[in-house]
Write a structure and sequence with these properties.
six-stranded mixed sheet; single chain; 9 helices; alpha/beta
Length: 265
């Protein structure tokens, strides 16, 4: 198969708390040298993703906010290809329900990260994501691509998922302590639908590498899906005859899988 696009998750897959995992830089470099377009695809904010793309240097696309916001690098600019927003009423309802349940929530717009106050968890994330939260009153606005619900106590994950149980919204875990509420279209492919349309390719020509529930859409659709633990191939469901799926314990093992497949491509 002639792979033309690689969609790479960040946290857990390429990095851990702001540090590049062993093999991460080599993985991106391998893809670039083989002429495969690189897209970083993460639940992180847009500004954090652009900061990471600058560090790597070989990135053409970023899909931020778990696929709600997709940008392309053109010359010296990052151009927005798509920003899928959640209905303002659903945003307002989710904010109210989070307040009732005592769950901290952040809003991600096309370019902004909004928090109601500067909490310890805000400051912790700021220390390694390359973005600074804007402290504002959380309101029912129509430009929110993602609500990030922070899980701090047993049972809150179930409550967080129930808050996302409204038409047009999907609840997906981006880590053990985060539940993302995003448009269903974003969760279905983590922005891959926008990327393949832009490049004029199909999903069989895509490599996806990820480790979390919010990566499941791109891993499920990609021609080559590499599931890094704790994600498993079994969790992706049935594959198409044209698809190949592999598991890897960590980034270094994912790199070895890529070397194997690209050597024979």
């Amino acid at each position: 198969m002639n792979y033309r696009l690689a969609m790479l998750d960040v946290d857990g897959t390429l990095q851990h708390r702001g540090e590049w995992n062993p093999g991460a830089m080599e993985l991106v470099d391998l893809l670039y040298r083989r002429g495969i377009t690189v897209a970083l695809c993460s639940g992180r904010t847009t500004q954090s993703m652009l900061w990471l793309a600058e560090q790597l240097g070989h990135v053409r696309f970023v899909s931020a906010n778990s696929g709600a916001t997709v940008l392309e690098h053109r010359g010296d600019e990052w151009v927005t290809l798509a920003h899928r927003a959640i209905d303002a009423d659903a945003v307002g309802n989710a904010i109210e329900r989070c307040a009732e349940a005592g769950i901290e929530v952040w809003l991600h717009t096309e370019r902004e990260w909004i928090a109601a106050e500067r909490t310890p968890r805000v400051e912790l994330d700021e220390s390694f994501v390359g973005d600074t939260a804007s402290v504002q009153t959380l309101t029912a606005r129509d430009d929110v691509g993602k609500l990030l619900l922070l899980i701090g106590k047993p049972g809150e994950a179930g409550i967080a998922r129930s808050i996302g149980d409204v038409p047009g919204v999907a609840a997906v875990a981006s880590s053990s302590v985060f539940v993302d509420l995003v448009p269903e279209a974003a969760a279905a492919g983590k922005g891959g639908d926008v990327l393949i349309e832009r490049l004029g390719i199909n999903w069989d020509e895509v490599i996806a590498v990820g480790d979390s529930e919010n990566d499941r859409g791109m891993l499920r659709n990609a021609g080559l899906g590499i599931a890094i633990a704790p994600m498993t191939v079994e969790a992706l469901g049935d594959a198409r005859p044209s698809q190949t799926r592999r598991e890897a314990a960590d980034t270094a093992e994912a790199l070895a899988v890529l070397r194997e497949f690209l050597a024979g491509a």
